[in-house]
Write a structure and sequence with these properties.
Layout: E1 2-4, E2 10-16, E3 19-26, E4 29-33, E5 46-50, E6 54-57, H1 63-70, H2 89-103, H3 112-120
Antiparallel strand pairs: 1-2, 2-3, 3-6, 4-5
C-alpha cells in the first residue's frame, strides 16, 4: 500500500510488519549533465530536460526492506537498518519488479540522467556542495 502526503512530495510504501520505504518527489526541470574535465563518457556537458516529476528513494534500501521483498539478504555487513549491498543490477531490477507488484506502484531504478539531476539538487557547481575539491572528503568516500 502507498500513502502519499497531501502535497504529494513524499510517498511511503508499506511493506508490512512495520517496514516502510520512503520516496520523495523530484520535480521536473532541466540541468547541464556531464563534465568536460571528467572521463570521456561524461563529455561533453549537455542540457538534459527531465520532463516529468518522479519519485526516488529518500534513503538507500535497507537490508530489512530488501529481505521483506526478496526473502533473502546478500549483504556482508549485516544489520537490519544497514543499506543492502552485494546486489547486482539484475537483482536490483528484480527487487523493483517485486516491489511494484507488492505495492501496486511502478517502481524502477533511476536513469543516469534522473540520478545526476537528483544528486545535483538544483546546483550548477561541480558537486552539490560547490567546486572546491579540497572539501570532497567531507561529503564522499573517494
Amino acid at each position: 500500500m502507498a500513502i502519499a502526503t497531501e502535497d504529494q512530495k513524499t510517498l511511503t510504501l508499506d511493506l508490512g510488519d512495520g517496514i516502510i520505504l520512503e520516496l520523495v518527489l523530484i520535480p521536473a526541470g532541466e540541468f547541464m549533465m556531464g563534465s568536460n574535465d571528467g572521463r570521456d563518457n561524461e563529455k561533453p556537458v549537455h542540457k538534459v530536460i527531465i520532463s516529468k516529476p518522479f519519485y526516488m528513494g529518500k534513503y538507500e534500501v535497507t537490508q530489512e526492506q530488501y529481505q521483506k521483498v526478496m526473502s533473502t539478504n546478500p549483504s556482508n555487513f549485516n544489520g537490519a537498518k544497514n543499506p543492502v549491498e552485494m546486489v547486482s543490477w539484475d537483482e536490483a531490477q528484480e527487487f523493483c519488479k517485486r516491489l511494484s507488484q507488492m505495492t501496486d506502484n511502478t517502481i524502477t531504478l533511476p536513469t543516469e540522467a534522473q540520478w545526476e539531476y537528483a544528486c545535483r539538487a538544483g546546483t550548477t557547481t561541480k558537486w552539490h556542495f560547490g567546486d572546491d575539491e579540497s572539501q570532497l572528503g567531507k561529503y564522499a568516500w573517494y
